[in-house]
């Protein structure tokens, strides 16, 4: 008990130090939390740093490639150079996860789990200090509160996708959700238990609804508007949460609100390819893309290109599109042009050959992480319409997306649920949806082309649809229950 107490105190100190990382003002100096967050300038500095932490958590391959890799949209490219040139192996960051063999003690996702709760802790600190600001107006304080709440809800939602079975895994969503943290660790050491999935989603939705009601006219931070949470992209996130929950009426209403009132319009058919090929900037229909980090001279230090990029035949990344995905597109589909096909030196069963690999054009040229864009709202509205017995409206929305892509239009509502699933797979590939869609729709995982995992398929339901909570965390918190099978 005494040892556990000392470990807990040590962890608290580490956590507070981690919290203070985003408070660093200049090399070699740091400001205490209490000192920095006592005025508006300090709180905004902290909020800016919090967005940096969020971007750094979702952009690397560990999370960004997870859903597409597990679902079957991705296969690995061969090593580009060196003694292993031509050989194919899983990416080191996802090696255990890829075969559905992640281990709690050495989990591939420990940094994601820890960083997510660190982000939540930082958001809670901002929420705790902001009401007492004397140099900010009520509108300004409400805006800060709204963005911090949206970030807190977003981090919890991502954690629930990775560590909790889909909402309808049990009829009443009484299965384990996640720990939902609404107080900073600065308030003292706590040992909370996991909420149920139903309770988790209630808390996420409450945070998002409160944020939506609190937004002022604009963010107080400097940078492009699409880089920060605002009323329209928070509504988009809420639509996604309702979809994941299976709350069809609210999913339809929220997606329709974004489509109708956000002021954002779908990228046109004529500019669709060019928009994705733009260097540095997101597509015109973006709702949320966190700004990528840059050095003091304005050079990009890291981006999604480090996961999906192709520069030359001797300089490319490991993640490419599987033929399981590419073969879904019709020959006329513009989205098929979003693949850069390259013939690369590959060793197959000891034989040297050249094989074609398809790199996505979505993430070349210093691309950022696409957190939300308008086409997803049409796909949410379509699925929600179908589930509320409005198949004609669902087909109309699917055809809007298909017409923009120059794909053949649906002419009847037969097999519309499967068509919606496939349309989401084609339209939203490499944007972090496929595996979660498979789980949400209670489908099986089937990975064929290029699968080199020890396990290439899963039959729903399976305990392996979620990852293990890292052992360090379950050891630290005796009330933190591990996922079954781990």
Automatic annotation (TrEMBL):
Which Pfam families does the record match to this protein?
SusD-like_3, SusD_RagB
Entry keyword Glycoprotein: no
InterPro entries, per database record: SusD-like_N (IPR033985), SusD_RagB_dom (IPR012944), TPR-like_helical_dom_sf (IPR011990)
Range of residues in the leader sequence: 1-20
Q: Which organism is it from?
A: Flavobacterium humidisoli
Enumerate the UniProt keywords alphabetically: Cell outer membrane, Membrane, Signal
Q: Give the subcellular location.
A: Cell outer membrane
Q: What protein family is recorded?
A: Belongs to the SusD family.
Q: Please list the residue ranges annotated as the RagB/SusD domain.
A: 344-486
| Protein name per UniProt | RagB/SusD family nutrient uptake outer membrane protein
Q: What is the lineage of its organism?
A: Bacteria, Pseudomonadati, Bacteroidota, Flavobacteriia, Flavobacteriales
Domain annotation SusD-like N-terminal: ranges: 101-243
Instruction: Identify the main location.
Output: membrane
